[in-house]
Design goal:
The structure holds three protein chains of three kinds. By secondary structure, chain A is of the alpha/beta class. Chain A has helices at residues 15-18, 66-74, 97-102, 120-130, 136-146, 163-175, 193-210, 221-227, 245-249, 256-272, and strands at 22-33, 40-51, 55-59, 80-86, 89-90, 103-106, 181-185, 213-218, 230-235, 238-244. Chain A has a single domain (53-80, 94-272), classed as Rossmann fold. The longest helix of chain A has 18 residues, at 193-210. The radius of gyration of chain A is 19 Å and the shape is globular. Chain C is of the alpha/beta class. Chain C is built from eleven helices and eleven strands. Chain C has helices at residues 46-53, 80-89, 98-101, 108-119, 124-137, 143-147, 156-168, 186-202, 214-220, 247-255, 274-277; strands at 5-16, 19-31, 35-39, 62-64, 67-70, 73-74, 91-94, 174-178, 206-211, 223-228, 231-237. In chain C, strands 7-8-9-3-10-11 form a six-stranded mixed β-sheet, sandwiched between helices. The chains are: A alpha/beta, B mainly alpha, C alpha/beta.
Chain lengths: 273, 312, 285
């Protein structure tokens, strides 16, 4: 499966200017929480680069700082230093609406990422109107179709949806502004395996159709191996190794921690096979 | 799911299905179905239904006061003063000026509702506003707003209300204002606590990622979630508010005679409390009943609106 | 094989507005001195089965069974008081997240000792001694120090090991572990399972291992029950799970992405409504 990276970038007219440019560039990123003696360094000196249309995975255990990188990128964590650029534009302290039109995020827990008192219609409608769309009615139905839900789900509340359906709504919300980059924060770790397969297939299809760039965070090497072409392994806030997925599959790793992770997840699988 | 089912007996059944559906077909349908399901779980709580029934009766009595009150509440007749309950024409007796207690209580229901409605409008909205802004903004805004709240909380409610009334002058509007001013800080605290948990949730992050500003997030996303717990709290506090209003009336700082406010009526009955018990007791019973009804209703509402705290 | 536990025709029901919801529908299985895995997706009734055995289903939920037999005693006919001595002393349960199972204001050492004192008639001193031994048994390097910690001061993996120590200290015959490692990182997961495995085997206990993770269960258990829609749809030896025949089990296995065998698309499980209605399989031996 070598159809990655360069498949998608030729959609729309404006891609010409940015073609070949990097979707996401992060250099020497430090992220911390708290000040002075309470300061905790969540990410230290991380650098990574995702080509436009590419798909990049960040793996590591809980507390390794992988989700923090996504949160810093989206502006949810303001305390960072270093350089971050999206689609060739350097990011400052504030993100404007233009940024959010090109970068969107899907959260880990679909039970926590939808407002409990808002119907699917309200969630998508508000998102669309915030981004200045006018044909909201048509777009909501289109979005629901795109994520495989259909118009019957439009007026349901989150409690009337299953976990997988909620995650589809969350994906529809992220797709609403027609972004070019999707940040995926463990999008299937709260779901059953059969639902996980559906969501992962959906994400693969969407990327192929729209030429999206993915930056995916996961603790599950198999999921990242399925979705991404390159992987960065994080431990205790640092990226210890960046390698193509093929190398990881073949066990061509240099860092002992990568090997350890690989063994832990392959060991479990081999014992079952 | 056609509502115009040709088979007559099934019409109510299909209405029920329409209301209980998990697959609403329009915005209005979804909202009505959600309301109906809330109503169903509320209906299961008999005590809360009892409370609601009393309060509806109170509203009805207040609305129909001119027609159901047997006497003019202000008409004095010294010839029939201090008649005991059961006297023909004076079902609950008469007071020291010969006015019919029943009629005065019926008219007093209007005043009680007026106080309740005004306080319920002013205090929680002020509290909601202060609390959510403080909770969402954090930092200095939070510190300043919360210290102000603390200052208000540090005064005993009735004493502070007394001070306000003393400054503003006695009267029912001023009493309401004074009660509201002392009632909002707890709501601000609740709203802030809720906001602190809500603001870090993923669905708030998600709207921030759509570029929504703080004003929109507070009013469209945080308020709807705070309101349910505030409604519950206000309902449970209503008893206290009625009592505070009655207390001010009793102290002569609330409604002024001859207004038939229940607290003021008790105050007037105080002079005769040993010999003519009914003069003070009857309005007292009314206050008791309405306060109890609000408490029962609040408990029921909590189970519906706030399932995480309710007794499940 | 000697039977420790024998469950026959277990039902768990919850009344809802739209009628009775049957969460577990006639499950039968037995447990010997073995590691029995129960796998299924959320809503399959696997966790409720575990809880129903310990009678931890609260009203309005209803538990019904022809029998739940522990050494010739029917658990359903015991009083609540007798049931309390069964829980912990004879059947222990480990839950998913240690954060919610440990008392946050009590030092972990005290909690473990308390669990021991509740069931064994000994002195505090001895309980403390036993606590330290137990912490060592779950491979905690510095038991003296860890015993003095509060639950929020320990990591997830260590918390789960402490839970295991606490559940094992009264020497139960049966351990029910409900997703004991799904809140943990992969590398810690294996370690915790290893510890649990060793203790269970050394003491000749029966283990019911409830999980959604097929690979984990097939690697760790002796026998597996696959649950769907409140019924057991298939039962097999754990090492033959990959030869399972039921389309549901097959579908679950194929839905997993695999690092060693990449595919462009994952297979999607197509749920056949008939699965719900077909008769369940008995897991009794």
């Amino acid at each position: 499966m070598n159809t990655r990276a360069d498949t998608g970038a030729n959609t729309g007219a404006d891609t010409q200017a940015t073609k070949g440019a990097n979707g996401i560039e992060i250099e020497n990123l430090n992220v911390w929480f708290g000040e002075h003696e309470d300061r905790v360094d969540a990410v230290r000196d991380a650098s990574l680069c995702v080509p436009e249309g590419g798909s990049f995975g960040l793996v590591g255990e809980s507390g390794s700082g992988k989700s923090t990188i996504l949160r810093a990128l989206t502006g949810l964590v303001p305390t960072w230093s270093g350089r971050m650029a999206v689609l060739g534009r350097d990011l400052g302290r504030r993100r404007d609406r233009e940024f959010y039109r090109s970068v969107q995020m899907v959260f880990q827990d679909p039970y926590a990422s939808l407002h409990p008192r808002q119907s699917v219609d309200q969630v998508l409608g508000e998102t669309l109107s915030l981004h200045g769309f006018h044909d909201i009615d048509r777009r909501i139905n289109k979005l629901l179709d795109d994520v495989g839900l259909g118009p019957a789900f439009r007026f349901r509340y989150p409690h009337q949806l299953s976990g997988g359906q909620r995650q589809r709504v969350a994906i529809a919300r992220a797709l609403a502004p027609e972004p070019r980059i999707l940040l995926l924060d463990e999008p299937t770790s709260a779901l059953d395996v059969s639902v996980q397969a559906e969501i992962l297939n959906l994400l693969v299809d969407l990327r192929a159709e729209r030429g999206l760039t993915y930056l995916m965070v996961s603790h599950n090497l198999a999921v990242v191996g399925h979705m991404c072409s390159d992987v960065a392994v994080m431990q205790l806030g640092e990226i210890v190794e960046t390698l193509p997925v093929e190398d990881m599959r073949a066990g061509r790793t240099t860092h002992p921690y990568t090997r350890h992770l690989l063994q832990a997840s392959l060991g479990e699988m081999a014992a079952g096979a | 799911m056609s509502i115009s089912d040709p088979e007559q007996p099934n019409v109510s059944q299909s209405w029920r299905d329409w209301l209980l559906t998990d697959t609403p077909t329009s915005r209005r349908h979804a909202r009505i179905a959600a309301l109906y399901q809330g109503w169903l779980s509320f209906r299961g709580n008999h005590m809360a239904m009892f409370g609601l029934f009393i309060l509806l009766a109170l509203v009805l009595i207040a609305a129909l006061a001119p027609w159901i009150a047997p006497h003019d509440p202000f008409a004095q007749d010294l010839a029939t003063r201090l008649k005991p309950p059961g006297t023909p024409g004076y079902l609950l007796g008469s007071d020291g000026l010969g006015r019919d207690i029943l009629s005065r209580m019926i008219w007093g229901a209007r005043i009680t509702l007026y106080i309740v409605a005004l306080v319920a409008l002013v205090a929680p909205i002020a509290g909601l506003f202060v609390g959510t802004v403080a909770g969402y903004a954090g930092g200095w805004t939070d510190r300043v707003l919360m210290r102000i709240t603390d200052i208000f909380l540090a005064f005993p409610r009735l004493v502070l209300a007394l001070a306000f009334v003393a400054a503003l002058g006695a009267g029912i509007e001023n009493a309401v204002l004074a009660i509201s001013l002392t009632a909002w800080p707890p709501y601000a605290r609740i709203a802030r606590a809720e906001t602190l948990t809500i603001r870090n949730s993923d669905y708030i992050h998600a709207v921030r990622l759509q570029g929504a500003g703080p004003l929109r997030i507070i009013t469209r996303h945080i308020w709807p979630l705070c309101i349910s717990s505030l409604v519950v709290r206000v309902t449970l506090d209503m008893a206290g508010i009625i009592l505070a209003a009655a207390g001010l009336g009793f102290l002569g700082l609330g409604a002024q005679p001859p207004t038939p406010e229940w607290g003021a009526m008790i105050s007037e009955g105080r002079k005769f409390i040993l010999d003519f018990w009914w003069v003070a007791t009857m309005p007292g019973l009314a206050i008791f009943t309405v306060s109890l009804a609000f408490n029962l209703l609040g408990d029921g509402l909590r189970d519906v609106l706030d399932p995480k705290e309710g007794s499940q | 094989m000697s039977r420790l536990l024998d469950v026959e025709d277990l039902w768990v029901r919850f009344p809802t507005r739209s009628g009775m919801f049957e969460a577990v529908r006639g499950v039968s299985f037995s447990l010997g001195r073995e590691r029995l895995g129960i796998v299924g997706e959320s809503g399959s009734g696997k966790s409720l089965t575990g809880r129903a055995i310990l009678r931890l289903i609260r009203p309005p939920g209803q538990v019904q069974a022809r029998r739940i037999d522990l050494d010739g005693h029917d658990l359903l006919s015991l009083t609540e008081r007798q049931m309390r001595t069964v829980r912990g002393q004879r059947i222990s349960m480990i839950m998913q997240d240690p954060k919610f199972s440990l008392n946050p204001v009590m030092r972990v050492g005290e909690q473990i000792a308390e669990a021991y004192l509740l069931h064994a008639n000994t002195s505090r001193r001895q309980a403390r001694q036993k606590t330290l031994e137990m912490l060592e048994a779950v491979r905690i390097r510095d038991p003296e120090r860890v015993a003095r910690l509060y639950p929020h001061e320990v990591s997830g993996g260590m918390g789960q090991r402490i839970m295991i120590a606490m559940m094992m200290i009264p020497d139960p015959e049966i351990l029910i572990a409900d997703e004991p490692t799904s809140a943990l990182d992969v590398s810690v997961q294996m370690q915790v399972l290893d510890i649990m495995d060793k203790l269970v085997r050394e003491r000749g206990m029966g283990l019911i291992f409830i999980s959604h993770d097929l690979n984990l269960v097939s690697a760790f258990c002796d026998r597996v029950l696959i649950m769907y829609g409140g019924r057991i749809v298939e039962t097999c030896a754990a090492d033959r799970l990959h030869e399972a025949r039921h389309p549901y089990t097959r579908g679950l296995l194929n839905a997993l992405p695999r690092l060693d065998a990449p595919r462009p698309r994952l297979e999607v499980l197509k749920r056949d409504p008939a699965w719900r209605d077909e008769p369940g399989v008995s897991g009794r031996q």
